[in-house]
Amino acid sequence: MTFYAFTGALEQGLVYGLMALGVFITFRVLDFPDLTVDGSLPLGAAVSSICITSGVDPWLSLLPAMAAGFLAGAVTGALTAKLKILHLLSSILTMTALYSINIRIMGGRPNIALINQPSVFEPFRALAAALGLNVWLSSSLLFLVMAAAVTTAIIWLLRTEFGQALLATGDNPKMITSLGVDTQFTIIIGVGLSNALVALSGALVAQNQGAADVTMGVGTIVAGLASIVVGETIFGSRRIVGRVVSVVMGSVIYRLAIALALSLEYFQPSDLNFVTASLVVLALVMPKIKALAQKRRGVAHA
Amino acid sequence: MLEAPVKLPEGEDVDLGRPAGAEPAGRPAVACAPPAGRKPANGEDVVSEDAAADEAPMLEARQLVKRFNLGTVNEVLAVDGLDLKVAPGEYVCIIGSNGAGKSTLMGCISGTSPPDSGRTFIEGQDVTVWPEHRRASLIGRVFQDPLSGTCASMTIEENMALAFRRGRRRGFRRGVGRAERDIFRAALARLDLGLEDRLTDPVGLLSGGQRQSLTLLMATLVRPKLLLLDEHTAALDPKTAGLVMDLTCGLVEEERLTTLMITHNMQQAISFGHRLIMLHQGRIILDFDQQAKRRLTVRDLLRQFQGSAMGQISDRLVLG
Fold first, then answer.
1. Spatial distance between the Cα atoms of B268 and B273, rounded to a whole number of angstroms
2. Which of A60, A227, A269, B308 could join A20 in a cystine, given CB atoms 3.0 to 4.6 angstroms apart?
3. Residues of A with CB below 8 A from B149's CB?
4. Residue B222 φ/ψ region, left for φ over 0, alpha for ψ in the -120 to 50 degree band, beta for the rest
5. B166 contacts on A by Cβ (under 8 Å)
């Protein structure tokens, strides 16, 4: 693996780590499989890009991007909680609608180029240059700071009364309703927050790669799940801090693994989705295989 | 004192019941059939006995009607114009065969399945249209399934903290306050299960009986206006069920909680509580107060049931 491939993987692991944290909130905290993310990632990219090309400060453009993501997630949450549509289906419906909406946002085009536009990376590139660091590391540096900040914020949130209610909504909605929590509200806010993070991730990806594209969200959910299960399989933490941190770690390791796989001669870049899907399946059945093996061993001893 | 022998009037066929819907005769002194050695929490209870009948009811259900599968051939009239008044501090056992409307009545009261018509009042407040989560500020509940009342993936202290905030707005303060741990530890200590030393263990590690005890503790951690127990010992083995019933009695008695307990076990219904009502086809067909209940045997109850309803009785109801 070249240095370029390594820094690229690190960078992607951290920026998509924000997306994985979003997926963690739905998939693990709320127990809500949410495919909206495939649409809210390009949504964030589209909103941020259109803001930047109309002269908005790139940092400032992240706010409407996140707001749009929150709204998309809230729609999915409301379809499920209020209209009682199956969660998976609700999210597919939102995702499908977002395809059209994203193209509308980008002024009827499927993509927007951000070449020669200001981005959030400029000061960091200058900083890296001043420190004599490789300029390729500057994006990673920024993403590291952001991933750390978002991780901290999520850990804080999950420890608050509201965060505990979110966790309980995912674990046992019947129980937490009987204790006075409106689970419709927690689901709508929770899925909204999740997609706000995914949209933030999308906005940063677009600024980093210099373009927003309506198809850039394909496979987002699978990559997010892969990051989560890789993190869980490797670190296996049960406490909140460990669980949240291992999502970002999982994202970085996942991207490095992908980079490694693609650096082998046999694979070509389009094999990425197959490799990822296989990885997720493997990680998901791993606990069952472990349990089975333990059982066998137990029987043998007896 | 609690096990004072009940003098049965001579002759076999004593009319034990009173007409359905009648006011309870008075608030009895004894909440539960006592486990050996337990004393009532407060002797004053006896003094206030007569005042209780005049008090405004803690729970009042007026003309509740609930149908299921409306407009289909499977339409069921689950609750049929039911009236019920429960005095503050009263502990009511509810029995009835499957489909008698017990759980539907509970659903109307807790808000999980609001009635088609009729009204529900808690402490004089009309809660008929309140959603379930809003009623939680007034009601503590324990479910039949011991796994239903707690979050398996969360720790004991987190579960208790969730219950400690029942009916309160949840903001961005700490989910488990530092000072609260002492309260939780003290509450857990009374279970005598050693859980007070396991505050940070996930609840998923506990047994069904432990979880049900914890749920009961959580339901009463913040004093509820009304405690609803929906066959909360039915899924436990007899020994564990006994322990959970002891705990129930202790908590209800100490706090003098207004309690509704559904049970399928006739002996349990006779032994515990101040009042026993039997539902059949969505109506209250029998309503015994404490005095009548003392004289009751399972066989009496069966005879009464057959006499009033001319219905069939499931084996489960008899054998409990």
1. 9
2. A227
3. 175, 178
4. beta
5. 179-180
Q: Is residue B239 part of a domain?
A: no
Is B175's CB within 8 Å of A174's CB?
Answer: no
Residues lower than pLDDT 50 in chain B = 1-31, 33-53, 311-316, 319-320
Same domain, B78 and B208: no
Q: Tell me the pLDDT tens digit for each residue of A86-104.
A: 999 999 999 999 999 999 9
Instruction: Give the chain A residue nearest B200 (alpha carbons).
Output: A239
Q: Please tell me which of the candidates B133, B149, B175 has its beta carbon nearest to residue A163.
A: B175
Number of H-type helices and E-type strands within chain A? 12, 2
Tell me which residues of chain A have a C-beta less than 8 Å from any C-beta of chain B: 157-165, 167-168, 171-172, 174-183, 238
Report all structural domains of chain A as residue ranges with CATH numbers, in order of start.
3-301 (1.10.3470)
Q: Do A160 and B173 touch (CB under 8 A)?
A: yes
Structure tokens at A19: 């997306």
Dihedral pair phi/psi, residue B68, rounded to 5°? -115, 155
d(CA B294, CA B308): 20
**Local structure of A210: helix, strand or coil:** coil
What residue numbers bound the domain in which B174 lies? 140-223
At residue B175, the 3 state secondary structure works out as: coil
Tokens of A46: 């589209």
Q: Are B131 and B266 contained in the same domain? A: yes
